[in-house]
Amino acid sequence: MSSATPTVRLRAMIENELPAYLEAVEAGYASDIEHHGGQTHEAAVTKARADMASILPQGLQTPGHSIYVVEAGEDAVGRLWVAERPSGGRPTLFIYEVAIEPEWQGRGFGRAAMLLAEEEARARGIDFIELNVFGGNEVARNLYRSLGYLETSVQMRKTL
Predict the structure, then answer these.
(1) What's domain 8-146's superfamily in CATH?
(2) How many helices (H) and strands (E) does the chain have?
(3) What distances in angstroms separate CA 13 from CA 37, 110, 112, one per listed residue?
C-alpha cells in the first residue's frame, strides 16, 4: 500500500454480511460492558444480547438505521453503524459503532469514517451527531475530541 491514504467511501452492508457483523458487535459490546462497565461476564453478555435485539429488531431493515462497510480502494477496512433518533427534542444521527479492522488501524480510516458520518448527517438534514464511548477507550475518545466532539456526561465509579 502506498503512503497516501486511498479514497474512503461507504457501501451499504448486504444481508449476507450482517450475521458475522452482529456477532462481532455483540461480542465487542459485551466485552466493553464487562471490562469498562464493571458488570460480570454473564450480565454483560445478557445485556449485549438484549440491547442488540431491542436496537436492531429488523436487522438491516430496521427503520432509521444504516450499517455501512467502510472501503478504501478495493478493501473493506471497517464498519459504520448510524441511526436517526430524537435527542433533546431534535433529530440526531447517533453513531452506534465505528470500527476499523485491526490491520488497518492507525492509518486515518477511523477519522475518515467519522467524517463520512458527518456527510451522512448533512445529507439527511441533521445538524447533530451523538455517540457513546466507554471511558477506557482512550484512542476513540481522543479521535472524537480531535474532531470537535464534546463530552456531555461522564459516569464514574470506584471499586472498594
Answers:
(1) Gcn5-related N-acetyltransferase (GNAT) (3.40.630.30)
(2) 4, 5
(3) 29, 17, 18
Which set of grid coordinates corresponds to residue 28?
465487542
pLDDT for residue 20: 95
Averaged in consecutive runs of 10 residues, what is the pLDDT profile of the chain (160 residues)? 64 96 95 91 96 95 97 95 95 96 94 95 96 89 94 84
Residue 57 three-state SS: coil
The one-letter amino acid at 69: V
H or E element at residue 32: helix 18-37
Q: Where are the domains of the chain?
A: 8-146
**Helices 41-55 and 18-37 sit at what angle, rounded to 10 degrees?**
140
Cβ(101)–Cβ(109) under 8 Å?
A: no
